[in-house]
Amino acid sequence: MEQEQERGAGAGHLLLFPFLAQGHIIPFLNLAKRIEGLEEPRRPRITIVSTPRNVAGLRRAVPAGSSIGFAELPFCPSDHGLPADAESTDVIPFMDYPALFFATESLRAPFEKLVSELAAREGCKNVCVLADFFMGWTAESARELGVQHRLFVTSGAYASAVTFCLWLRQPTFPRPVNPDDEQAVPDFPDVRLRHEQLLNVVITEDESNPMTQFLRRTLNLHFRHSGGVIVNTAEEIEAKGLEMIGKLSGVVGGLDKGWEHVSDVVETVLGDGEKARDMRAKAAELKKLARAAVSVDGKVKGSSVLAMERLLDGAFR
């Protein structure tokens, strides 16, 4: 495992851990750059965590003198039946995606070593992990190691809420079923989808399918152990989606007080407090910046969250 010396000197140390896909890595990089642009003392130290090939690409994507650091976790794709260079979904066929998803769980031991070393050096309260929703085990690791954890949802709130709900609990379609048959989404009865749309999200209705179990497990780990959620949206753009994300906090089950963050985040965006008013006042700016925030060299490739106030307010307490 290789870790660069972090060059920033802000309040706390933020570890960003994207899933191994360019559509996930790019939003995390854009978020890191945006946080890096904050003025001290608000700016934390930033380290992006990934596998060697991904880190090599990320290093090339930051300008000289950037304070963003990187940590490489050892990863051998061939140990998981993948090609030697398979450290991202863009270099493997769709049929091999499940193997890469499952292989990410092998990163847990080196990740925990990295976090424990940082916590010992800088103090648990000064370390916060911000992880992709496909990396649910990081939430459990962070809880066990006594550091903060936040979930970063790189897609919008509405689509994410519906998708997460379907991953956790699928609607039951009567048999025989036709592609155009409709059912309500569990917990969101006003949202209906056709059977063919369901299969676009869950791939299979077989509850014993390993990928189905992986998705359910990773979300439950986030929901059970994470201390915050950051969603790529703003209230004026997606009020309904934020309401749905808030509702999920009460229907998933196994939620301890650490999951109170969901209502906190939704309140920050939707409420009448100073932070909510400030966020609404910035909505026009967010809309203008959204395209720039999701692009690399002028080409749109991913998504990124722009509202960071809640993340930085709550990450280092």
Automatic annotation (TrEMBL):
UniProt GO molecular function: UDP-glucosyltransferase activity
Q: Which UniProt keywords apply?
A: Glycosyltransferase, Transferase
Q: Which family does it belong to?
A: Belongs to the UDP-glycosyltransferase family.
Annotated protein name in UniProt: Uncharacterized protein
